[in-house]
Amino acid sequence: MSLPSKKFIFVLPTTSKFQTTPADRLTHKSGGTAILIKNSLPHHPTPISSTSFENTSISIDLPNGFHITLASIYRPPHGKINTSELHRILNQISKSIVVGEFNAKHPSWSTGRSNSNGAVIHNFIASNNLIIIAPQEPTHFPINAPSSSTLDFGIMCNIASGTSLNELSSDHNPVLFEIDININLSALPKTIKTKNWSVFSTIIQNSIPGNPLIETTQDIDDAITKFTASIVTALNQASKAKIIKGPPRKLPPEIVDKIKLKNRWHKFWQMTFYPPYKLLFTKLQNEIREDINEYDNNSWKELLESLNPEDNSLFDFNRKLTKKFFALPPILYSDGLKYTPLGKANAFLHSLENSFQVNPEPYCNDQIRGVKIAVNDYFKAPPPPSNPKLTSPKEIIDIIKKLNVKKATGPDGIPNKAIKMLTINAITHLTKIFNRCLQLNHFPTVWKIAHVLMFPKPNQNPKLPGSYRPISLLSNIGKIFEKLLLARLTEFCNDNSIIPDDQFGFRKNHSCVHQLLRVTNTICEGFNAKLITGGVFLDVRKSFD
């Protein structure tokens, strides 16, 4: 399927705007298929095995449970078409579209002589009540032969006009298909949200009380809900959306005029096969290629000269260049490949669930029994009086100052930038919530909820769910409370010598390097004392999962 270049920006390979699903040929060049689809359209690949067709197929998920199978195919010009494979492609679901180069000619859609594959396709369409969509104009114009034919068309099942577009320089014209599916798909314009932080602070100042009434754990949960809602409302009211129009690269008018003139001469040549028209078209095509290369080089030079390491523009640009967009492939699980987002999510869910199980390896029953008894006794005993050190607005402000504004948000959607812009009444409100949590030994459930993102592990099969590492995104406000708890737990453990000196993990100023130096020093002391030094090393599988 081809799309008009004046309405879409083609960016290859897969980007944040478009998803590419190519079917790469590994044997020789030419041929091959691919589908370019907007990421805003819900879809997933549906591979179809075929020996006579090269194909790429996807399923587009439409509202109200509708699905459309879209297949891009290429049929080499030699050999006979196998209609059973076409039947398998078109019978995936009730609505199907197959488009591409069939290399089949028939008077029903092509001028000139027909061929045997054209008769096969025609009979197949007639006997299965299908619809062929072909442009009225030819799509194939051989460079070395003054003839034209229609080799590129579409076959529809239960779906529907085709137009040959004279907008590329290939010997095959792209074909635009217009499909009426009787479903309203609203276009989602690309927008950038800008926030007026002065307005945000004013709204927070007028909407959040400085000293809320909190007595019970239920009051804590209600206060957090209202506090979060107030910040989200202020963010929305202080935000302004700006729609981005047009492509990111705008060619100069003189190059655009040359492209229009080139397309005109190209059309004249396809209509008349008059050799001088082809010469004019080829000459303009070469000039346009050189002009665009020169324009891109000059634009690149101006961009590089504008970068400045002092304002971080150089580092930001380097981050954009090195950032790779990862397209999640189908996930292989016990009952087959998962293509849909829901199927992939369930595969990851079961994989993580299997990882979080009791270790089946041998263990000491007496030790396990003793641990269970100690834990049960602890929970059955009345809670000891808790007198933790309460926090203050100054301590919270000191933590907020160190927050990284580039960190992702959690389920509440509150960024660190918004937390940094909180007014003093909001800080005192937050102080009251934190102190009540400390006094009542309560950690709010809403701060335990996380968005889990799966990131591929390097050098592992991306189709296996176990090849991904989960990253949990928690509430940024909850993280501030965690920092308060950590400071108090660390102080208590240090004062009571609870953490052994040999533990280096999760301790301040005790990194992996220090532990390596300690081990090295122990080994050297053994060597100097003429002693045999042994070591036991433990590798915990999936410790970060």
In words, what does this structure look like?
It is a single chain. The chain is α+β, with helices and mostly antiparallel strands and 545 residues long. It is built from 14 helices and 16 strands. The chain has helices spanning 83-90, 116-127, 197-207, 217-237, 253-272, 275-306, 313-322, 341-355, 365-380, 393-401, 416-420, 424-439, 476-495, 512-528, and strands spanning 18-20, 36-38, 43-45, 54-61, 67-74, 96-101, 131-133, 152-157, 162-164, 175-177, 191-195, 239-243, 331-333, 336-338, 451-456, 468-473. The protein has a six-stranded mixed β-sheet, with no helix packed on it. Helix 1 (83-90) links the parallel strand 5 (67-74) and strand 6 (96-101). The two termini are 42 Å apart. The model is unreliable at 1-16 (pLDDT under 50).
Task: Tell me the series of helices and strands, N- to C-terminal.
Answer: EEEEEHEHEEEEEHHEHHHEEHHHHHEEHH
| Class computed from helices, strands and strand pairing | alpha+beta
Write down the overall geometry.
Answer: elongated
What is the strand arrangement across the widest sheet? Answer: 3-4-5-6-8-7
Query: Which percent bin holds the helix content?
Result: 25-40%
Distance between the termini: 42 Å
* Proportion of residues in β-strands: 5-15%
Number of helices: 14
Uncertain segments are 1-16
Radius of gyration: 33 Å
GO molecular function, one term: RNA-directed DNA polymerase activity
Protein name: Putative RNA-directed DNA polymerase like protein
Keywords: Nucleotidyltransferase, RNA-directed DNA polymerase, Transferase
Domain Reverse transcriptase: 436-545
